[in-house]
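Cross-posted from the bioinformatics board.
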Amino acid sequence: MKKKKLTALLTAVAMMTGILSGCGSKGAESAPAEKTPAADEASSEQESAGGENGGTAAAGDAQPITIWYYWENEGHQATLDQLIQEYNGSQDQYAVTAKYVPFADFKKQLSIGASADELPDIAILDSPDHASYVDMGIFEDLTGKFDVDNYYEGTVNSCTVDGKLYGVPFGANCLALYYNEDMLTAAGGSVPTTWDELKETAKALTTDAVTGLAFCSVQNEEGTFNFAPWLWSTGATSYDINNENGVRALTFVQELINEGVMSKECINWTQGDVMNQFIAGNVAMMVNGPWQIPTMQSEAPDLNWKVTLIPKDAQYASALGGENYAVVTGGNVDGALDFLTFATSEEKVKFMMNQFGYISADKTIAESQFAQDSPYYPFVEELNYAMARGPLAEWPSVSDAISLAFNQVITGTATPEEAAAQAQATIDGIVK
Amino acid sequence: MAKIKKFFRYENVGILFVLPAFLYMLVFVGYPIIHNLILSFQDVNAGNLVRGTKNFILFDNYLELFQDSVFTASLWNTLRFTVLCLVFQFIVGFALALFFSKRFSFAKPVRGILLVPWMIPITVTALMFKLLFATDIGIINFLLRSLHLIEKNIEWLTTPGTAMFALICANVWIGIPFNMILISTGLTTIPKELYESASIDGAGKVQTFWRITLPLLKPTIESVLILGFIYTFKVYDLVYVMTSGGPVNSTHMLSTYSYKLSFEMFKYSKGSAVANVLLVILLFVGVFYIRATTEGEND
C-alpha cells in the first residue's frame, strides 16, 4: 500500500518536473531573441554575446538580423533569399535570415509581436499599413539616413508621418487596365480611354461566356485598392465621398453590374482570382497590377493581351501599391540599417525589381527599367497618376467604410447616394 | 517525519495529481481569458498597444458595440446559424444513425465513408462549397438550370440571404457525421432485451422508438446538442474562407467580426469585447452541459 502511494507520488513529481522543464527550455529558447536587441549597443563584449546567441542562426560571430515578409510567390522568395545570401557573403558582422508570414496573418503577427515584444529587426510591409505601425511606435525614424529625393512622391509619402521618414520604399506598383487583344479585335472595339468608351467596349466584349470587365471588389483593403482609381478619377478624395463626384464613381460601378458587363462575383474575387478568370478567357478586360505579369506569361503564354491606362472620368488616376522596408525599434538597428544600405543600392534595386516584376520606387531607375514595348512599360506611365492610400493611422477604418460602400452598391443593398452618405458619416467619425 | 507522512495522506496525494492540470489551465486558459477581459475594459488601439497609457473606459466598449449594427447583426447571425445548423444536423444525423444500426451488408463501410466530411480540413470544405455555390461556374446552378427549376443563375454567395443559406448547407454537411457517430454509439448502449420484450408485448416500431429508444438516448442527445452548439457557435474558418463576413457584412459571426475589429482595423479592445460576449454565451451553455452530464451520473 505504501509502495503504491510512493509510486503515485513519484509519478506526480515526475509529471511536475516534466512540465517545469518544458517551461524552462522554452524560456531558454526565447531568451536569445530578447538578448539580441541589447547586443546592438556594440561593444566587444556584447558582440561576443551576440555571437553566442546567433550560433543557431549562422556560423561565426555574426549578429542575427531577421526580416519578415509576406510574398507567397516562390520567385519572390528565391530572389530575396539570393539578396540575403549575397549580403551575408559580403561581410561577417551580421547574419540575415528572412521569415515568411502569410499576408492574411501579417498584420496580426505584427500586432501580436508588438505587444509580446517579439518583433523582427526589419519588416517588409504593405505600404498603406505603414502609418498605423508608426503610430504604434514600433518603427525607427530614418530621416536623413536614406536619400529618397529621387523616389516617387507617393511611395515616400506612404512611409512619412509628420514630416519624418519611417521607412524606405521597397518597390512601387499600381493598377492598370489589361485587355485581351484578340477579343477586342474580334469585337471590333478600340482601346478605351474614358469611362463611356470603357463601358461601350465592355458591352461589345460581353457574350454568354465572357464578361467585359472585372476588378477585385472584395470588402477589404484589396477591394479598396481596386476601387480607388475610379473614385479618384472623378476628383473625389478618400475622405470626401458624399458629393457629386463620389456618387458618380459609385453609380458607374453600379451601372457596370446592372448592365451585365461586370460580374457581381467580383466581390468574392481576389486580384489573383480576377487574373485567373482573365487568362481562362472568362473576362475580356481587367484592372490588375504588374505583379501578375510573370504568372500570366508562364501560365498562359499564348494569350494575347496588352496593358493600358485605366480609363478616366475627369483625370487619370490609379492606386499606388507596393511594400516598404521598415526598421523595428528595439531590434538590432545598426545591423538593419547596414543591410538596408546594401539592399537599396542602385545595382541591388535593379536586380530585385526585375526579378520581382516590380517597378523601382526610384524614378531614375524606373524610367530606364523597361523597354517601350514591354508589358511593364504602361505601368511606369501609370505611376505618374498613382496616389497613395492614407497615410493615416486610422486608414484601415476609412478603408473599411469605402469598401462597404461599393459592396453595398454592387450587391444592390443600397443606392449610390445612400452608400456615399453612410460612408461619409463613418469617415467623418474617424477623421475629425 | 510523522508530519511528512501525514502530508502524503491519500487526499493530499490527490491534490498533487490535480496540480499539473490546474497549473496548465491557469497558465494557458486562465491567463488569456483574464487578459482579454482586462483588454475589453480598456481603450487599446494601434496608438497605444505598445506605448502610452491604456485608459480604462470600463463598459464603454460594450455599450458602443450594442449600438453597432454590424455587431448586433453578427450576434443574431451566430444564433440563427447555430440553431438552424443544429436542427438539420441532428435530424439527418439521427436518421442516418438509426438506418445504419440495422444490420445489412455494407452498413459498416458506408458508415465509415460518411465520416469523411468530418475528417476533411474545414478550409478545404469551405473552398469546395464556395465553388459549388459559384454563380456562373457553380455546379449547383448548373443542376438547377438543367432541371429547369431556375431560368437565371442564382447569385448564392453575393446576395445577403442566400449567402447565409450556403454557409448553413456547408456546415450541416460537416456536422452530420459528428451527430451520426455519437448517436450510433448511444444506440449500441441500449440493451437488446428491451426491444425483444417490447415486441413480445406487441409494441409497434413507432411505439418502441418513442418509448424506448428516445428516452434511453436522452443523455446522448443532450451531449450531442450541447457539444454541437458550442462547436457551431464558434464557427470561424468556414465563414472566413467562404464569405469573409460578406456580402455587405451580412454573414459576419461573432468570431469573424472580432477578428476583423482586432486585426484588420486595429481596434483591439472592441475586438476582445466581442470575443467576451461569445465567451459568456458559451459559458452559459457550458454550465448547462456540466449540469446535464453530472445529473446523468447521479441517476
